[in-house]
Amino acid sequence: MAVISETELQRRLLLLERKSSVIGSKVTKKDPVKGNYAEGDLQYNAATGNLWIFKSGVWEIAPDVLHIRYADNVVNIGADNKASSQSDITGFSEQAFNSAGVQKAFRGLYWGSSTASTSSTAYEWFNVSSAASTLMERYWANSSARLVNIGNPDIPGAGVVWTALSSGQNPPSASFWVAERFYVGGLWTAWQIYPTQADELGIPFVKYIKSGSKPTLGSAQWITDVVEAASVQTGLSFSNQKELGYGTVVVIQYDNGKISGQFKRVSGADTWVAPSQLIDGDVIVDGSLTANHLQANSIGTSKLIVTGVDAVTATTFGAASASDVFTTGTTTIDGGKITTGSINATDITTGTLNAARINGGTISGVLIDGVGITGGTIGIGTPAAGARSTLNGYNVEVNSQGYLQAVDFVNFGNVGVFGNADGLASGVRVYNAGTGCAIWATNTHATNNVHQHGIRGEHTSVTHTSGLVGPANAYSFYAEHGAGYGPFTGSHDALIPTGTSIPYGDIVIDHSCISKVDISNTIFKVVRSSSPNQKAVVGVLVHNNGLLVNAYPPSAFVVSREIDEETEEEVIVYTSAWDSVKNTYDGVIMNSIGEGQINVIGEAGNLEAGDLIVTSSTAGKGMKQSDDIVRSYTVAKVREDVTFTSLTEEKLVACIYLCG
Predict the structure, then answer these.
(1) How far apart (Å, rounded) are the C-alpha atoms in residues 374 and 400?
(2) Are 221 and 320 members of one domain?
(3) For position 424, what pLDDT does the model report?
(4) pLDDT tens per residue, range 75-90
(5) Do 625 and 597 belong together in one domain?
(6) Which segments of 244-330 are extended strands (E)?
(7) How many structural domains are present in the chain?
(8) 190: Cβ–Cβ under 8 A, 6 or more apart, which residues?
(9) Average pLDDT, whole number, for the chain?
(10) 3-class SS at 642?
């Protein structure tokens, strides 16, 4: 026996009530049998949950479903909420949003069979902006996951957060999906979910064969075929073109020809355009294929044949053997090889290596004997006037005991050692395999001076750089003596989708965990606070470092750092999450503890120094907490008196952060 919910039972009973023109209708515990019935009679079997209708002399199961459509504009709406002519209805569509992601102005409701009516005049039309909020609920989500993975506001998908929209409010620019449902005939409808924008990174290439005649590029039939093609090729379920992402290239072969299209956003609208260049055939002429002819991310190892007759091998590249292409630990020069240990002192002819062979002629007075550099002192440079010592007339010297000594570099601010490097290399790097300190810095100057530091770290040229970085297995920084750290503000790394705009000083809350590297390092995607007393509050945004791939990577993505012995550059090993977010998220910094400032609003009244601050109903802004007990949703403690002229006035005020 089929079991249905109470809601479904109510819906079907309401259906019977709606059929005012029905000659006869009844509820029983059995299916109808032959008898004296009239066209349109209804019978509901409470045991099986089936609703039957008498049509053309036979009984049929009669599903009655609420269908929803949208229109840009509807005029001449009658007392029954219908328009008499299809010319009164423009932009009739199943989609709630136009190609620019803007909500259509009118919503149409239609009760009918499982197949919706294609006639716009069959629907009851309502203006979306004037619809009473009690008749519908709307939510938005900024997850770019596919429809099958995002769930709905009642049962959200993994890591998906649905945020409620107030009556008449359009979804924000960061939204990817909108869900809405309606209160009709005393019941809530199922959630209907629509995409508002596409991901910026599409599927590189989709190739498909489809029976039938080719449609027009960009037409409704083309879009239907594209969604089918992408689903078949990837094995994933797609419901609309926005889920494919911008940049997706699709080639479909029909019975009467082939169509190629690329999905783009042109002047704010989703558009299919013919690729400007496409290699369509089996032969690539020498020199015809260059980097600008390849779609980004379109060639991977899965696209190369590595076994069989047509496999890519060393000879494909003109090499004699695989070892001539690359062999670990060796380097190929003009066809010859230098292997480990193959060059030693006996392989260098006497007299062939001299100052003329070395750039600038900078080696003299020393002996290269195949083991090391021996004899005397190696000196570099001449001290400038005013240096406190001369080290036998050199700026830097290595003495006969192997000690490196350096005098003042007057031209570089009187520093003992000056390091300069490009790329990921370090200006100065010190190794110590012993039990002591790698660097011990002591300042013994007797005069008090604000610049008198043991170690000073400073970096001002680009974003997301730090004066000092201290990775360690225990404390990264340890205050052995003194008054601790000061002035003190504790900050965290976080992520926001690229293109998201959050004012500095606004409150942010945790949305979803992106990466965990160890017990002390995690990183989350954050969003602006949106309602009072949110417990997920984690800090106040203070800086956006820009796209992750262009900035110093947050520690929660770094498994290890090593130095390449050949290039002396830093090699970073990342967590598995790095590649999926480095080109789509910005790294941001948020203050969570210590001193700073915060954006507040007058929603809960004026503030006195010492009052606690919580999130408000205004996105990103704080307000006065209702009591003076530090709670899970407390953001900060205000440090100054603040007077507001209205409930909506916003101010930036001094505070002590208490949320992280």
Answers:
(1) 8
(2) no
(3) 46
(4) 999 888 889 899 999 9
(5) yes
(6) 249-254, 257-266, 269-273
(7) 5
(8) 181
(9) 75
(10) strand
